[in-house]
Amino acid sequence: MFSIIFIALLILLITTIVMFLASILSKKALIDREKSSPFECGFDPKSSSRLPFSLRFFLVTIIFLIFDVEIALILPMIIIMKYSNIMIWTITSIIFILILLIGLYHEWNQGMLNWSN
């Protein structure tokens, strides 16, 4: 019993020393002015923060998030197919996909997917 506790403490001590040495050795001595300044999407942080920003980037982000969440919701539907009633599963899947297709049509109809403007 004593040897197990001793081995556990020895392992804890060794990992603590290794982590401490890694943090000391990984420090960089030179501080570069460009690397220490904030980088915000390619804009110069020293200039005015009220520059016009294209909303297209925001819309692309929102569209990506919507379809990313859609994939996260569709994948488990395939797994639960064999555990649920096939009729209810089919109706739920069709309704879910129809809602997504209506949203995609609305985005397309509003011109959110058109980058030529």
UniProtKB/TrEMBL annotation:
Record-listed E.C. numbers: 7.1.1.2
Keyword set includes Transmembrane: yes
Recorded family membership: Belongs to the complex I subunit 3 family.
Gene from which this protein is expressed: nad3
Lineage: Eukaryota, Metazoa, Ecdysozoa, Arthropoda, Hexapoda
Name assigned to this protein: NADH-ubiquinone oxidoreductase chain 3
Pfam families xrefs: Oxidored_q4
Chain's role: Core subunit of the mitochondrial membrane respiratory chain NADH dehydrogenase (Complex I) which catalyzes electron transfer from NADH through the respiratory chain, using ubiquinone as an electron acceptor. Essential for the catalytic activity of complex I.
Membrane-topology annotation of the record: Multi-pass membrane protein
Localization per record: Membrane; Mitochondrion membrane
GO cellular component: mitochondrial membrane
UniProtKB keywords: Electron transport, Membrane, Mitochondrion, NAD, Respiratory chain, Translocase, Transmembrane, Transmembrane helix, Transport, Ubiquinone
Organism whose genome encodes this protein: Drosophila melanogaster
One MF term in the entry's GO annotations: NADH dehydrogenase (ubiquinone) activity
Catalytic activity: a ubiquinone + NADH + 5 H(+)(in) = a ubiquinol + NAD(+) + 4 H(+)(out)
First-tier enzyme category under EC: translocase
InterPro entries from the UniProt entry: NADH_UbQ/plastoQ_OxRdtase_su3 (IPR000440), NDAH_ubi_oxred_su3_sf (IPR038430)
Transmembrane portions of the chain: 6-25, 57-80, 86-105
Zinc-finger as UniProt keyword: no
